[in-house]
Amino acid sequence: MKTITINGREMAYQEAGKGKTIILIHGFCGSAKYWEKVMPLLTDFHVIAIELRGHGLTSFNGESFLIEDLAKDIHFFLNKKELADVYMFGHSLGGYVTLAFADLFPETLAGFGLIHSTAYPDTEQGKEGRLKSIKKIQDVGIVEFVDGLIPNLFSDDSIHTKKEEVEKAKEIGYETDAIAAMETLSAMRKRIDRNHIIANSEVPVLLVKGTKDKVVPLDRVTSANGKHITVELLETGHMSMVEDSQALVIAVEKFVKNK
Questions:
Q1: Helix, strand, or coil here: 209?
Q2: 89-143 residue pLDDT tens
Q3: In the chain, how many domains are there?
Q4: What domain range is 118 assigned to?
């Protein structure tokens, strides 16, 4: 892991390879470790996996923030690293951040993708669920919260066949700062509809769906059609980067190389 200072905070990241730059952004209660099976397979590219505020080894100062603030962190990071024309792929929460980035800083992107994510805002039921999650963290702490969260991210098959990966995901989640997790839930609850960002994008867009995803329904992943949009359907749950990393890498490689 490396770190870079952003507005007085330390942002942690992993970096490897040469070629076109691919930025990977993890999901809620994840970290750069989510991409450990993916990065070694992307041998033809310069790959950076970034850790968001309070996740993994990235510091958190206790302040409230919005999804847009996380996107601004990444923009600051890219400027400091003198990187542009990058391909950005976000998993779940990371997809919300990617969309906010595409909204605020479209000139920096050569293309972007959502991995098991959505451009829709939370439903009223979803917003209520965020509040319940915040209360659960307050009541029982991050460890018990993560123990309840992680199994739902995997397909029913993977829960039984990939027990080691499920436990590893829990251990990654335990590293999340509890206050940062609550602030992230609040930020996700407040996020806006960004379907127009996908529909009107001037750069290519990749949408990755999981047929067994229990978190983001298939019809919430795809909201627009167009020659600039590529849709990939994987036989996984919400965690294709660990459930079938090779299939995800093939989708990402094909997208970046053909654009």
A1: strand
A2: 999 999 999 999 999 999 999 999 999 999 999 999 999 999 999 999 999 999 9
A3: 1
A4: 2-257
Kindly give the pairing relationship between strand 205-210 and strand 229-234. Answer: parallel
H/E segment holding residue 16: strand 9-16
Q: Give the whole-angstrom CA distance, residue 97 versus residue 90.
A: 7
Which two structure tokens, joined as six digits, stand for 52?
């968001």
Kind of pairing between the strands at 2-6 and 9-16: antiparallel
> Which CATH number characterizes residue 213's domain?
3.40.50.1820
Whose tokens are 């915040």? That residue is 134
- The answer to whether 55 and 180 are in contact (CB under 8 A) is yes
**pTM (2 decimals)?**
0.97
Distance from C-alpha of 144 to C-alpha of 51, rounded to nearest angstrom: 22
Q: How far apart are CA 171 and CA 137, in angstroms?
A: 16
Contacts of 123 by beta carbon, 8 Å cutoff, 6+ apart: none
